[in-house]
Design goal:
Helix content is 38%, strand content 0%. By secondary structure, it is mainly alpha-helical. The longest helix is centred in the middle third of the chain and has 8 residues, at 14-21.
């Protein structure tokens, strides 16, 4: 996402639903959904 992206109030964000519906192996989920290191 970039600063040019704009969400209107109530606008759907299908990317988040897509991530919830993916059936990924645990090792892949760990890489995709990792948290940022502290200090960011």
């Amino acid at each position: 996402m970039f600063g040019t992206d704009y969400l209107q109030p109530g606008q759907a964000v299908p990317q988040f639903e897509l991530f919830d519906n993916l059936d990924l192996p645990a090792a892949v989920q760990k890489k995709v959904f990792r948290k940022k290191p502290s200090g960011y």
